[in-house]
Specification:
4 helices, mainly alpha, extended
Length: 92
């Protein structure tokens, strides 16, 4: 893998993770003085690595059976549906 690919993947995932519920949960754990910041970081980082590994494994397996173009289309439709559903639920 070249540096450009790494930067694109890193930037995309980094921006997607900013401000999401995982980051907010981690923030709340770190704010609770019962938990040490180092343990919160270690646990959260390990969880993110594990979920990323599952995503990579699932994507690699799916790509063996399904055209990646079709996967991209389905993922895009899913993101659009979630994006439309979020304000719809808030406005109801």
């Amino acid at each position: 893998m070249d540096l450009k690919t790494f930067v694109i993947i890193f930037g995309t995932v980094f921006l997607a993770e900013l401000g999401d519920k995982t980051q907010l949960a981690t923030l709340l754990f770190a704010a609770d003085k019962k938990h040490g910041a180092a343990w919160v970081f270690l646990a959260a980082a390990t969880a993110l690595v594990a979920t990323t590994a599952i995503g990579v494994a699932a994507g690699s397996l799916l790509a063996s059976y399904v055209n990646t173009r079709h996967l991209t289309i389905v993922a895009g439709i899913g993101f659009i549906a979630i994006g439309a559903w979020t304000p719809w639920g808030a406005l109801r």
